[in-house]
Amino acid sequence: MNDPTIGLTRSGRRSFPVEYRLDFLRKWDASVERGAKVRLLREHALASTTVDRWLAARTRGELTASMVTRAERSSHRMENRDRAELARLRVENEALKKKVAQSEAAQQILGKAFELLEGITTSSEKTPEIPPTLMSADEYAKWLKQHRLS
Predict the structure, then answer these.
(1) Contact predicate 40/28, CB 8 Å
(2) Is pLDDT above 50 for 29?
């Protein structure tokens, strides 16, 4: 059991939360070996009369009803419009996550394209130019066309 908070009543008797009772009763129902139920009572320091009351309350549906009542009184209870808004916000959140992922992918692609173009322009700028006086006639004609001098 997960660290139950067993409280005390005004008269000093122990008070068990409904979740604790239901969890204990699940274990009680699963105990089928000889002496398993007695061992369970000892582990939890409970009297058989207490468990009998819990079993009777479960049979009458009181445990489930008290859980529903507690949930309705809870300050954490959500109204229908809050649930609808939460569902809408979850859908919107997923759509925005997809858009962000697409934008990041596009940004990466653009960055790589920029690096590629930058590499091409810097590599074309780095080619050393041969002085026109050392060029052949064909190279000199191309050079004149590139510089729009012919």
Answers:
(1) yes
(2) yes
Q: Radius of gyration of the chain from Cα atoms? A: 40
**Residue of 10, 5, 38, 8 lying closest to 21 (CA atoms):** 5
More confident: 24 or 15:
24
| Tally of CA atoms within 13 A in the half-sphere of 94 that contains its CB | 5
Give pLDDT tens digits for 53-67.
888 888 887 777 766
CA angle, corner 13, sides to 64 and 77, nearest 5?
35
Tell me the two tokens of residue 138. Answer: 């064909």
Q: What kind and span of H or E run contains 8? A: strand 7-8
- CA 140 from chain centre, in angstroms, equals 68
Tokens of 122: 């810097």
pLDDT at res. 108? 94
Decide which of 3 and 130 is more confident: 130
Per DSSP, 7 falls in state E
User: Which of 37, 20, 19 has its CA nearest to residue 28?
Assistant: 37
